[in-house]
Structures are given as C-alpha cells and as structure tokens.
C-alpha cells in the first residue's frame, strides 16, 4: 500500500510536467508564427515602398482626355524608371506633374485628420494614389528638337514634315481642331490627349510661360498597364510603328 501510494504523486507530477511542456510548445509555436507573420508583413511593406520609390507607381485616371485608351477611374501602373533610367519615346503615355497652370487653382478642400492619415499610409505603400489629381496623363508626341505641325491637307498631324496615321486617337476625333506649328525646345516635350476634342493639352497652354511644353524634369514615368478594373486590363502600347517613320530632327 505504501509503495502504491508513493507512486501516485510521481505519476501525477510527470503528467503535469508533460502538460506544461505541451503548453510551452504550443506557446512557442504561436510565438514563432506571430514573429514570422510580422516579419513577412514588414518585409512586404518595405518592399512595396521600395518598389513605389524606384520601380512602379499606381495612379487613377480622373478625366476623359485619354479616351478611348484610358477610361475615367481606370487604375494604371507607371514605370518610374522612365525617364531617369530608360529613354522616353514618341507615343509613350506619360504621367507628369503640373508644369504650371495646367490644372488651375489647387483644390483647397480640407480633409479630416483620419482621412489624411489614411491617404498618407495607403499612398506610401502604393495601395491608393491620393495624389493622382495632381498629375496629368497624356501621349508624348514631340521630343526635343521635333517640329510638330497641324495639319496637312488630309488633316493629319506632322512631325518633322512626316504625316502620322494616329490609330490611338479616339474614333470621331480630329487630330486637332486648331492649327499650330511648334519646335520642341531642349529638355521639353509636346504632349496631346488621345481624345483630341476634349483634351486641354499642350495645344491649349501655349500662352503660359512654358509655351505649352512639358519639362522632362516633371515626368513621373511611363504608363505601361491598366490594372483595374479587371475588364479593362491591357498593356498600353506606344505605337512605335506609327512613329518609326519620323526622321530625327
């Protein structure tokens, strides 16, 4: 009896020790999972910031100036290696900051502190694009040195004396409803919307100090892809076949 009575506590103690070990193991697995989760999320956020800073950015389209290539509220992916690393080309769809006077007076609507914080955080990680309304999206037509003229006897736009067949211009729109002839200065660009009848592009800002030209320094990048909505997903062509016929200035 005494032997049997002495063994019971040792069995009970061993069982309790085993249970404590199981609980510690479970806690350790949970802790390990939480550490891994935080590390993965943190790495993903840091990676998204780096990608936004050095590779790509996301913008949404606030107007119809690029119809039918880009629809209102389309979200686009922009290659920010252009133009610092990769060269600009005629036909590129470029995103650029206001060169001065294109967007009119800035929107002075005050946002709630929470909305400001949300815009900052989500914008930093590229989830939203709160500064889209502060940028413009047009097609690059003229590079430095180019002579851009409207229009020939058939109503076509000319670059360096060569007429273009602009398949990207919205159906029913003329290449331009106003006549002009400009020589693009060094370090500047001439841009036009695909919806030529409803695009206040370089043509309509010639009275500004910039002469309607866009400094290359304010170009954020080249739009390469429509990412949202899904039904509009497509690669954004720069129509090199159209511009290959243009001679160097």
Account of the 3D structure:
The protein has helices spanning 2-54, 113-124, 240-243; strands at residues 56-60, 75-79, 93-97, 135-142, 147-150, 157-159, 162-163, 180-183, 188-192, 214-215, 219-228, 234-235. By secondary structure, it is α+β, with helices and mostly antiparallel strands. The protein has 2 domains: 1-54; 57-243, Umud Fragment, subunit A, CATH 2.10.109. Strands 1, 2, 3, 4, 9, 10, 11 and 12 form an 8-stranded antiparallel sheet that branches. The protein has a 4-stranded antiparallel sheet with strand order 7-6-5-8, with no helix packed on it. Strand 6 and strand 7 (162-163) form a beta hairpin. The model is unreliable at 1-9 (pLDDT under 50).
How many strands, which pairing sense, and closed or not: the largest β-sheet? 8 strands, antiparallel
- Rounded mean pLDDT is 83
Query: How does the overall form come out from the CA principal axes?
Result: elongated
Run of helices and strands: HEEEHEEEEEEEEEH
CATH architecture of the largest domain: Ribbon
Percent helix: 25-40%
CATH topology of the largest domain: Umud Fragment, subunit A
CATH class of the largest domain, named: Mainly Beta
Tally the helices: what do you get?
A: 3
DSSP strand count: 12
Radius of gyration: 29 Å
How widely separated are the two ends? 110 Å
- Structural class, from helix and strand content? alpha+beta
Supply the number of structural domains.
2
CATH superfamily of the largest domain: Umud Fragment, subunit A
Assembly status: single chain
Work out the strand percent: 15-25%
């Amino acid at each position: 009896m005494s032997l049997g009575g002495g063994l019971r506590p040792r069995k009970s103690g061993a069982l309790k020790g085993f249970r404590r070990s199981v609980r510690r193991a479970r806690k350790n697995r949970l802790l390990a999972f939480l550490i891994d989760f935080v590390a993965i999320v943190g790495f993903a956020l840091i990676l998204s910031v780096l990608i936004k800073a050095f590779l790509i950015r996301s913008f949404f389209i606030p107007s119809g100036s690029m119809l039918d290539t880009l629809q209102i509220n389309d979200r686009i992916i922009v290659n920010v290696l252009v133009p610092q690393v990769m060269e600009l080309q005629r036909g590129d769809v470029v995103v650029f900051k206001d060169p001065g006077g294109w967007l009119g007076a800035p929107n002075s609507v005050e946002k709630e502190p929470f909305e400001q914080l949300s815009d900052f955080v989500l914008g930093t990680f590229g989830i939203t694009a709160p500064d889209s309304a502060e940028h413009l999206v047009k097609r690059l037509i003229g590079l430095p040195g180019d002579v851009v003229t409207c229009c020939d006897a058939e109503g076509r736009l000319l670059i360096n004396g060569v007429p273009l067949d602009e398949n990207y211009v919205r159906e029913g729109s003329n290449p331009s409803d106003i006549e002009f002839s400009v020589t693009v200065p060094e370090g500047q660009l001439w841009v036009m919307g695909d919806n030529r009848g409803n695009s206040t592009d370089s043509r309509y800002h010639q009275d500004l100090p910039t002469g309607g030209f866009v400094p290359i320094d304010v170009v954020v990048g080249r739009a390469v892809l429509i990412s949202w909505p899904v039904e509009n997903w497509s690669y954004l062509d720069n129509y090199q076949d159209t511009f290959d016929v243009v001679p160097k200035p």
